[in-house]
Design goal:
- By secondary structure, this protein is of the alpha/beta class.
- It folds into 2 domains: 122 residues, Rossmann fold (3-Layer(aba) Sandwich); 132 residues, 3-Layer(aba) Sandwich (Rossmann fold).
- It has a 6-stranded parallel beta sheet, covered by helices on one side. Strands 6, 7, 8, 9 and 10 form a 5-stranded mixed beta sheet that branches. It has a 3-stranded mixed beta sheet with strand order 11-12-14, with helices on one face.
- The longest helix has 16 residues.
- The chain is elongated and about 65 Å long.
């Protein structure tokens, strides 16, 4: 996008994505988040530049940092290297939607731990005592992504709260290039199989549903599935915590433009879909 300097005092905000913008626009939730940021910045008379490329996961070139920027919004998962680069800048930088990897980098993100603890508690109220958490391993970070880590922490907190045995409630990892899904299939098999799954995103939920179908299990009669997702687009077919991505984007832009940029967490809203059933012993 070409920079224009019609209003010198209005400020230039840089939105950075570590993926092509076309991928952001194709995802209903992330597109809603981007539109939320743009709408809020437009109301504040800010000029906006969107920098988007796979290379921006690790480093932001000097050509962007040499611009008269008033703030940066990081709209996607970034490596520790890029986060450290952002922390050292003399302008406000805010991580959007993703919990940051380094201290000193504020974020506007979902209350992942609280939402996961609430979701697991709802499954317990439905009579489930063998519940699996299905998380994602980031190909960029080579470890569970930050959202998955926080959601896992909330899940484990719920297990302790309800005094459920950890051995009956496994945390299952999924890898980008894994096609066997051995861990999920094993958890869904046998006399002590799990009867419910809490998934960190819609892709994991669909994977669990396919594995259940492969084993002849029906959802929700034999297996209940809950998943984090946006209010619209992918994942709305599953029960679970829903994120208002448009509101999250507006909050991020508003926070960046405020006098003091601080970490903010937004709550999810629970939505019921026909993927949960009471466990029948």
């Amino acid at each position: 996008m070409q920079v224009q300097y019609a209003r010198p005092n209005s400020g230039i905000v840089l939105i950075v994505y570590g993926v092509p913008l076309a991928e952001v626009r194709q995802h209903a939730g992330y597109n809603a988040m981007l539109l939320g940021m743009l709408d809020e910045l437009a109301q504040r008379n800010c000029h906006v530049i969107v920098a988007h490329d796979f290379a921006f996961r690790s480093v932001l070139p000097d050509q962007y940092l040499s611009l008269p920027l008033t703030g940066i919004l990081m709209g996607s998962l970034a490596t520790r290297r890029l986060c450290l680069q952002m922390v050292r800048l003399p302008i406000p930088v805010l991580q959007v939607d993703v919990p940051p990897l380094v201290a000193g980098l504020p974020c506007v993100a979902v209350d992942n731990a609280g939402a996961a603890e609430d979701a697991c508690s709802r499954l317990v109220e439905f009579g489930h005592r063998r519940i699996a958490m299905v998380r994602a391993i980031s190909q960029i970070l080579k470890q569970p992504d930050p959202d998955s880590k926080e959601r896992e922490a909330g899940f484990l907190a719920a297990l302790r709260k309800h005094r459920l045995r950890i051995r009956d409630c496994p945390v299952l990892s999924t890898f980008p290039r894994d096609r066997s899904h051995t861990g999920i299939l094993r958890a869904l098999s046998g006399p002590r199989r799990v009867t419910a799954a809490l998934c960190v995103d819609p892709n994991r939920a669909r994977l669990v549903a396919r594995c259940a179908q492969h084993l002849g299990l029906k959802v929700p009669q034999d297996l209940s599935i809950a998943a984090f997702s946006g209010l619209e687009g992918p994942g709305i077919e599953f029960s679970g915590p829903k994120v208002d991505f448009n509101a999250l984007g507006r909050m991020a832009a508003s926070t960046l433009c405020s006098p003091k940029v601080e970490t903010t967490r937004i709550s999810t809203s629970w939505q019921d879909q026909p993927t949960l059933a009471r466990f029948q012993q």
